Each structure stands twice: as structure tokens, then as C-alpha cells.
Amino acid sequence: MKVLNPVGETRYEEMKDRLAPRPHTLEGKVIGFVDDGAGQAYFDRIAELLHDICRPAAIVKRVKPLLSSPSPQALLEDIRQRCDVVVVGTGI
Amino acid sequence: MELKSERIDVADAGEAVELFFQRRWTDGLAIVPPTEEKVVEMLRYAGRDPSEALGEIPPYRGMATIEKLAINSVMAGCLPEYFPVVIAAVEALLEPESNLNGIQTTQSSVEPLIIVNGPIARELGINATLGVFGRGYRANGTIGRAVRLILWNLGRNFPGEPDRSTYSHPGAWSYCIAEDEEGNPWEPLHVERGLPLGSSAVTVFSCEAPIAVSVRASAEQCLFALCESIAYPGCNCYRFLGGGTQLLVGMTSLSAEQLHREGWSKQDIKRYLWEHARVPYWKMEKAGVLSEPDFAGSNLADLLWPKWIDRSNPDTLVPATVTPDDIHIVVCGGRSGRFVVCHGWGYGGLAVTREVRPLASAP
Q1: Nearest-CA residue of chain B relative to A42?
Q2: How is chain A split into domains, by residue range?
Q3: Coil, helix or strand at residue A45
Q4: Cα gap A76→A78, rounded to integer Å
Q5: Contacts of residue B149 in chain A, CB cutoff 8 Å?
Q6: Which one of A46, B2, B74, B179 is at 20 to 30 Å from B20 when CA atoms are compared?
Q7: Cβ of B210 under 8 Å from any chain A Cβ?
């Protein structure tokens, strides 16, 4: 007998393990953060450490409207245009 | 009818079941092998184009085509007549208010509850009375599981990878009830939510496991007992208030009749519960439930709570929801003096109602 595969096709299968290109240095770069809105002090401290250690040109932060939903496309596009490197997610 | 899914040769049904376990195509329970014949039968009944896509199921973003929904519904053991209910439930879950991405991955322990209203609930034999959240009814069991298998195979939210739900709950296998409309002295849930009387509908609401409240006394005593069971400091409804909290209260037809007889409307009950099921602010601070080390000093009350909650006074009483309308009332569970409470999540997973499309209007 033949049975059918129940798994949905996804456009993202090959993208899920792919990393964005890494810059050689963060010095003089504009670094962006997408803050999930739950831990302001956490993101502020990371920005502080990056400032001290990596000497970026600037740090740009955007806060997601809802902690548990993916960032809106417009927010991602905005921060992408302003920055050389963006941290779009952190895990706990 | 042309199907696009990969076909796999197996010797028999037993081998198919083992294959699905090996490939992680099932949730931990055995399945009905989805043969082309059975899948086509389901698709023909619904009269929908198999290639029609309803949207992407997070977090894997598998495309929810009618064909994949049919395959998973066969696996769950659904009859073809159940399929329109499954489709409506998935459509509801794909609405932004459902925040399915969050529901599929949160650390909290909520799962989507499917509530069926209207003539289709009776026609399909979806249980609304004794043992309503339990076992024993094919329609409840397999409609609920079909939706879960769809979330599993299209969303691929395996426990821990990346579903972070700490406890989940048994509703993650199947969580489907009907409203006892014959025993409901008020308008049914889907009519209250804007659909015409006589229509059939599915409401999805992501919530924790049911908490039983046993009380058969005066209306005021029953409502007081309910409030005492709803409100406690560690409850997400209070912690995440403002992020999108809702609450479901179920009551038996006997309890509903009594409240109705004593002059209570649904709106009266919602307002009473909203005003009285409250946690004193000082208790939440004392219990330390408004912050976590992961929040790095942030306080949930700062982040989420409406500004009208007076935090300068420790005795301020905090409600479970922002408005009384965020409390849903469903009549179900037979005829004893009992109630049930299902707390929502807090970051969405809000109730969404969709009509189950009559077959005549299908393309």
C-alpha cells in the first residue's frame, strides 16, 4: 500500500541553519538590536558591553510590539537599512 | 484529483504506523495510515481544492494546504464529515489574534481549545455534556487530534525543539468540546460573538487545563466560589494583564439555569467575575511573580499592565482581564452543580470564531 507524507512544505527548510555573513570586526560598525520587550536592562547591558569592548560607531535598538510574535517586516527592514550588523533574536 | 504529496510504499498498516513513528510524523500515538483513497474521500466531501493554501503554520512555517490538512485528518481518524470543522479551526488559528507562533513555542502551558457551536455539533455527535473534556467520543477525539497533528506536522513544534512549554497539558493530544446549546438559557457562544443563530461555528481559544469548581448553592455563592478559583498570584492572567489575557468559564446546564432563573445575564456574570476575581497587588509583589531573573530587572507590571491600575496602593485589586468581555462563558458538562475554569495565556491566543462553511457554498 502507499501512504502520503503529512509534513508541510516550507520555504524555509534550507534557510534555518544558514548564518548571515559575519564581519571581521565590529569596530566602527553600526550594531542593531531587536529587543523583545521583556528585558530592557538585559539589552541595555549588552549595548554597554559592546560599546566598551567593540567600539562600534553606533548602536540602534528597536523594540518588538509583542514579545511572543515575530518582528513585523517593516521593523526588520528599517533596522536592516540603518545597521551593518543586527542581532534579531536571543534565547533563554 | 491530483495530489502533490510524496507517496511512500509500505507492506501494510502496521508498517505504516511504525514508519510514521520513526520519521516523527506522529505525536506519540498511533495513526490511521493516510492512503490516497482515504485522503481523496475526505477532500471530495469538503469540495475544496487540495492545493488551496490557508497560510503557514509556525514555527516551521509548513504550508497549510487543504491536502495536508486532509492527510493529517485521516491520520487522526476523522470521518470526512468532520473535515470542514478541522478546516475552520485551522483558519481561526491562523488569524493574528491567535498568535499561533507564540502558542506553539511559549514556556507557558496553554493549548488551543476548540469549541464547536451550531447544528453541526449535534449532527457530528460532538460531546457537550458529561465528560466533555474527556474521552469516549470519536468526533471530539479525532477533530481535536487532527488539529494537533496539523500543528505537529506543519508547525514541527517538537517538545523542547523549539516548543518551550514547561508542562503543556493533556489537551495537547486533543482539546475539543461542543457547547450544550439545548441546556444554555442564554445565546450560544458563536451568536454572542457575532454569527447568526442557526449557523455552525468553531471558536479556538488557547488556554490551560480545566480547573473544576464544585459548588451547588445560591447564585452569589457559586460566583464567589468561582472567583476564589480564578484568582491566584502565579496565574498568567494576572501577571501578563494587558498583554492579551482572556479567561473561559464553563458551567453545566443546571448551574446556568439556576443563574438565569435568579436573574443573571451572561454580561452580569462576566462583570461580576471581572470585578471580584481579583488578586491584591501586594500579594503579587510578595510572591515575586512580576519579575524573573531572565527579565533582568524588568517588571511585568511596568511592561504590560494598564496605567489605570493604581500600584501606589498595595491593596489595589488586580483583575484577570482588561475588560469583562475578555471572559468567555460556555455551557457544557451535563447536569450537576459544577463549573470549570480555563485560564488563557496572556500574550494572545485570544478567542477567534469562524463559521464552518456549509458545503453548498464550497467551490
Answers
A1: B296
A2: 26-87
A3: helix
A4: 5
A5: 6
A6: B2
A7: no
Cell of B35: 492512503
Longest pairwise C-alpha distance within chain B: 70
Q: pLDDT by residue for chain B (363 residues), tens digit each?
A: 899 999 999 999 999 999 999 999 999 999 999 999 999 999 999 999 999 999 999 999 999 999 999 999 999 999 999 999 999 999 999 999 999 999 999 999 999 999 999 999 999 999 999 999 999 999 999 999 999 999 999 999 999 988 999 999 999 999 999 999 999 999 999 999 999 999 999 999 999 999 999 999 999 999 999 999 999 999 999 999 998 899 999 999 999 999 999 999 999 999 999 999 999 999 999 999 998 776 667 788 988 899 999 999 999 999 999 999 999 999 999 999 999 999 999 988 999 999 998 775 444
Report the DSSP beta bridge partners of residue B158: B161, B162
Interface of B with A in 25-44 (CB under 8 A): 25, 33-36, 39
- Closest by Cβ to B10, choosing from A1, A8, A70: A1
**Sheet hosting strand B327-331, strand order edge to edge:** B211-214, B338-343, B247-251, B327-331
d(CA B359, CA B363): 9
DSSP assignment, residue B307? T
Buried b (16+ CB within 10 A) or exposed e, B250-271: bbbbbbbbbbbeeebebeebbe
A23 touching B (Cβ < 8 Å): no
Task: State the best of B1, B2, B6 to mutate against chain A, taking most chain A CBs within 10 Å.
Answer: B6
- Enumerate helices (H) and strands (E) in chain A, giving the number of each: 2, 4
Q: What is the ipTM of this complex?
A: 0.93
For residue B92 the three cell numbers come to 481561526
B250 contacts B331 by C-beta, under 8 angstroms: yes
Cβ-Cβ contacts under 8 Å between A and B: the total is 117
